[in-house]
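Aim 2 progress. For Phosphodiesterase, the working sequence is reproduced below.
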Amino acid sequence: MHFIEPFHTADEVWHALEEQQGMSDGEIIDLWQHQLQTAEELRLRGADSEMIIAGLLHDLGDGRVKDSDHAAWAAHSLRPLLSERIAWVIGAHAEAKRYICTVDTNYWATLSPVSQKTLVNQGGLMSSDEIVAFRHSLWFTDALFLRQCDDAGKKAGHTVKDPEFYQQLLYQVINK
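Predicted structure tokens for this construct:
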């Protein structure tokens, strides 16, 4: 995997997020709106600031690196600025999809066609050893929560009306 130098400032991170306006991974909305919608979904479900920021930045690697590397790329690029929890959850959101698809056979049908395709590129279903290891991860439930909101953050015709709220929250979390 090709890593860039990690981000150094909140401005760099916000700029990278803004660059995703109009960028598509094949879903019905662009990556900018998808990440805003995911953050909004987390906020509406009562998530704390760190989880909202994880939702805002979870797909920062999409459009920049291949599907199988996008989560690890984002986690690596953001780790110097964010807590280990946020970086780990971002890095694990594709694993969470693999996990849920493995343990809940009905979940596959709820995924978008693009998400079904990327599941294969991201390793497919988990082995029993992978399931056990993932369940024992410190932030396992956070990764599942992000995954649920990730799936819910793909609403055509919905525009997050206050991106500045999320920008300010990002600056607050980074500058703690």
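Residues 29 and 156 are 6 Å apart (CA to CA). This observation will guide construct design in the next reporting period.
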